Amino acid sequence: DSRRGQDPSPQPLKLKEVFTLFQIQYNRSYSNPAEYARRLDIFARNLAQAQRLQEEDLGTAEFGVTPFSDLTEEEFGQLYGHQSVAGRALNVDRKVGSDEWGQT
Amino acid sequence: VPSTCDWRKAAGIISPVKNQESCKCCWAIAAAGNIESLWGIKFRKSVEVSVQELLDCNRCGDGCKGGYIWDAFITVLNNSGLASETDYPFRGNSRTHKCQAKKYRNVAWIQDFIMLPDCEQGIARYLATQGPITVTINMTLLQHYQKGVIKATHTNCDPQRVDHSVLLVGFAKCKSVEGRRAASSQSRPRPRHSIPYWILKNSWGANWGEEGYFRLHRGSNACGITKYPITARVHIPAKKQQQLVSCP
Fold first, then answer.
1. How far apart, in whole angstroms, are the C-alpha atoms of residue B165 and residue B242?
2. How far apart are CA B112 and CA A96, in angstroms?
3. Which segments of B44-110 does DSSP mark as H helices, in order?
4. How many Å apart are CA B86 and CA B83, to the nearest integer?
5. What is the pLDDT of residues A41-92, one digit of tens each?
6. Three-class SS of residue B233?
7. What string of DSSP letters covers B178-198?
């Protein structure tokens, strides 16, 4: 990434500062140093991913630190997405509902 | 089809952005938002309906583990309407089959629900003339989204793998950011052009994205937005016909 003349992610020391700001902003704390280190690593990967998405994006979108920056992609999907509806056929008749106007 | 439409600009149509917290109930929040906006448009009545009732009375088990828009509308039809958010407030957890709908008066109801054809022009026309529509998209890019128009590719946002339901509330165009890709790829700056986009209401609180909303490119089935465009139908009794609100 540095070949592009841009620093894709902050320097280590700065990364910790950015991560501390993230923790303060989104009220995050971690139960032990190992968990802290793991979340810091995920955070760094997410910042790099956000940078890639920003470069790839063909619109005006800005990607960066969000409330979900310390979650892996899998955790994010499990916590906020509901099960994938790919391929599920609708088995509901289009015309359902009573014909009375406005009746509860 | 008007060139722009933003139901947020019409008073009493779009309710405040909600936060699903740790409950995976985007499907219930999107369906409730759809019903609220249709009542605002058809009856000029600003209502907030109970998401919790959709979770508790959901026929498909624990609503906090996920669900489908059509199941929310079937629950509304089965209950002949929904109680208000005030009477039956959101708790962020689901007591399956502990439905308390009968305790409260219904403040809104629907007659039907339909799924629209997967054509973005047709969806825009319906949105502008009838009101907001629920859609289900691939939410992958939203993890790192801060603001702006996401113009996804089918590789970084698979339109077939949709997993998050939101409410479509408007559309417009904006100017592209000149030369952003050029800077990174050292190629020739490209001429500015306008980017058509959809405006979508999310359920991750008002501090996320653009005050709880986000924008997706319009015209490329970005993140599968045309896969399940579903809306409730609210009929106005003939004697109550009045001038409809058009999308600002």
1. 31
2. 6
3. 51-56, 69-78
4. 8
5. 999 999 999 999 999 998 999 999 999 999 999 999 988 886 545 444 443 3
6. strand
7. TTHHHHHHT-PPPPP-EEEEE
Q: What tokens appear for B244 in the block? A: 């409809």
The set of catalytic residues of B is 26, 164, 202
Mean pLDDT by runs of 10 across the 248 residues of chain B is: 94 95 94 97 94 90 88 96 97 80 96 96 96 97 97 92 96 76 48 87 97 97 97 84 76
Of B80, B150, B164, the CB nearest to A57: B150
The identity of residue A8, as a single letter, is P
**Contact check, Cβ <8 Å, B217/A58:** yes
3-state secondary structure of A25: helix
Q: Does ipTM come in above 0.90?
A: no
Backbone angles phi, psi at B133, to 5 degrees: -130, 140
Measured CA to CA, the distance from residue B219 to residue B173 in angstroms comes to 11
- DSSP β-ladder status, B106-108 and B145-147: unpaired
Query: Can you give the three-state secondary structure of B219-230, one letter per residue?
Result: CCCHHHCCCCCE
Q: Nearest-CA neighbor of B54 among B107, B105, B95, B5?
A: B95
Question: What is the dihedral angle through the alpha carbons of A94, B200, A64, A37, rounded to the nearest 10 degrees?
Answer: -50
Spatial distance between the Cα atoms of B91 and B89, rounded to a whole number of angstroms: 6
Residue B216: count of CB within 10 angstroms of its CB: 28
d(CA A70, CA A38): 9
Largest CA-CA distance found in chain B, in angstroms, rounded: 66
* A79 in contact with chain B, both atoms CB, cutoff 8 A: yes
- Cβ pair B230, B133 in contact under 8 A: yes
Residues of B in contact with A4 (CB under 8 A): 184
